[in-house]
Design a protein that fits this description.
Helices cover about 75% and strands about 0% of the residues. By secondary structure, it is an all-alpha fold.
Length: about 150
């Protein structure tokens, strides 16, 4: 259980980094959405965000970005992000390619801020609940040793 909490924290941190990277690409490169997703999907920093590759592949197959993005997140099974996290992240489908670059950058910043709030909650849960699980594991081990002896 403690590792699940750590994985969620890691995925949230990577998602925030992803949004910041998107902002940078939009601000300085102004590349099309399909190229942006392709570049990020094969970036080694985002290998844990497996939905990116699914999204990129769907775009290459001709699917529109909003549907490909939502589909990628919906099909993301090896995640520990909760539904609230995924819902916030799926909102990117309404942002990219929908308006001018500056509006997209600002909207991505707001999305990152929402994920940062969830990250704070996840860190608090990891620090409190994670310690509880670790302590219980040690106590159960000691109890089993006493019971067996």
């Amino acid at each position: 259980m403690s590792s699940n909490l750590s994985k969620r924290v890691n995925e949230l941190e990577n998602s925030i980094l992803l949004l910041e990277k998107m902002q940078t690409y939009l601000r300085y490169s102004k590349i099309p959405t399909s190229e942006l997703i392709r570049a990020l999907a094969y970036n080694e920093n985002f290998t844990a965000l497996t939905f990116l590759k699914v999204c990129s592949q769907k775009i290459e197959q001709g699917e529109a970005f909003p549907e490909a993005w939502k589909s990628g997140i919906f099909l993301w099974k090896d995640t520990r992000m909760n539904e609230k996290d995924k819902e916030i992240l799926s909102g990117v489908s309404d942002i990219l390619g929908s308006s001018d670059y500056e509006s997209q950058v600002n909207s991505l910043g707001l999305t990152a801020a929402l994920l940062e709030q969830n990250l704070k909650e996840a860190l608090a849960a990891k620090n409190t609940t994670g310690k509880l699980y670790r302590s219980l594991g040690v106590l159960i081990g000691i109890g089993m040793a006493i019971f067996i002896a």
